[in-house]
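Quick illustration, no need to memorize.
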Amino acid sequence: MKWNSHFFLGLTLLFAPFHNTSANVKSQVKLASKPVLSAAAKAIIHGKSKTKPEPAPVIPYEYKVYEHAKKDSLLPKLSLSTIETHQKELKHLQWNTINKSLEKEAEDLYWFYEVSRAEKLGGVLALNSWIKSLNSLNQFKWIYAWTPSTSKALLKICKSKKKSGIEEKCTYLSKKVSDAFPKLAVETQELKVLLPESTALENSGDKYDRLSQTYGEKTEKDEQAFAEVLDNYLNHRDEDLYKTAKSFIESFPKSMLRFRAMFLMAERQFAHGDKKEAEINYSLILNQVPYSYYAIVAGERLGVQLKERLLKEPLKVSSDPADFKLNFLEKESLYRLKNLVRGKHYEGVGIELEQFTRIRNYSTEFLIYLIQQANQADQNLAGFRFASEILQRKNEAPLNVEFLELIFPDRFPKEIANQAKISQIDPLLVVSLMKQESGFKGGILSSSGAAGLMQLMPFTAIEVQKDLELQKLREPVKNIEIGTRYLASLLNEKFNGNVVYALAGYNAGPHRVAKWRKDAHSDWGMQEFVEAIPFKETRDYVMSILRNRYWYQYLKGSAQQSVFEAWRSP
């Protein structure tokens, strides 16, 4: 559930640069009945695609090595010779690849294999290998390489060996493993006998649970200034709100918070019947951030059907490197990328996409091409990063159904539908949350220990299923099962069908939501509650998932629930 501060905030896609904040802006703004697009964006939709016949795909050897090793690492039993062969190849790959992302992936996989190799070695050699592995991998990654059988192997070695120094290593490893796993985890129960009584399984498990995560954030100048705007909004000091919001927009014309300031003004203007002024601000939001949560609310306030603004023409994007103004290394990477996609080596596609780091220098057309490649290979996490950049360019995002499908892909529909039916929860809420948590990257591990599609923390997952082996969380089906059950328990049991409370609880912990509800003003509606969430991560998270569900409802042909009714489960 946690993707450290969340890299996924980059996927919220809530904001875009706004450059026109002059005094004459009101006279310039009109609600767009047709999409406002730049010439470049129009060319993407209406332009001609350049295509050339391509030879058979040539898959780089380094990707074949990595993908073979990755596939074998998921098998339950491997021989020592197979493990060592993969390690040798992975080490060679690290030394020779120029792709830093692939190098890091290969290094982590090497140490995953080392945990298994140590189990095969036995004796003091195993203890030394385990210590080296655990110290080389991030703690929140190696716990997914450690299995109940690994604990049994450690116990066997430590109970049978009485050599000098062995007891110290056994205690060190047992304590390190026990402290890393949640209390009562099946991976650690065997190790109690190896620990001094005073330290045996003393960890509470809470430090690995989302409920106890830290939310330290650097406060920027615009955030400090915006605090006064928000305070005026929440306390219904409307004249002060208008004054401070306008001043904020003028002072911080490129702040991501400027659309939030416009929205808060528009909400109060609309509530007081000043429809003309409200329409100006709502229209700015609709025209500049057309896919955002705030645009959805603005559209509903103004009676505008956002789906009617989407064009139906297919996107026309060149695949000729000469059209994209790439440097030599980028052309080489694009060549590898195209071959990986055509050869269906999809794991490598996601890694190769990481090579395109100069996002702001690329044309919108090239970024859309990269998103298409990512989508074709089911590597949406990388594609969302490129989409975020497009959505931050004024009038560059195509208001187009095909583009909408690229940034709101339908992944794991059968698995989600099955679990949603069992847990009695809206499947579109599950896929919307999954998009935000992991970008649909199945075996992903966060730096804080969250795993899989629904980014489950170990402690939370074991609360849902007591006998769960944590390695299973990396399997999509099991992760969807546990994550859906947990979300449903928050929605249907803890928060009586309130979607906002359930989503906030999934991200920040239900006990925090209880406190926020207690602190809320009696005259607040749900919109004020959302705006008042003190953690930026959680606030953006809730709005992003509500936005996701709105667009998934459209793409699925479902009745689009009013945003003002979306607080409760349908």
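The chain has three domains: 32-51+219-407, 61-212, 413-555.
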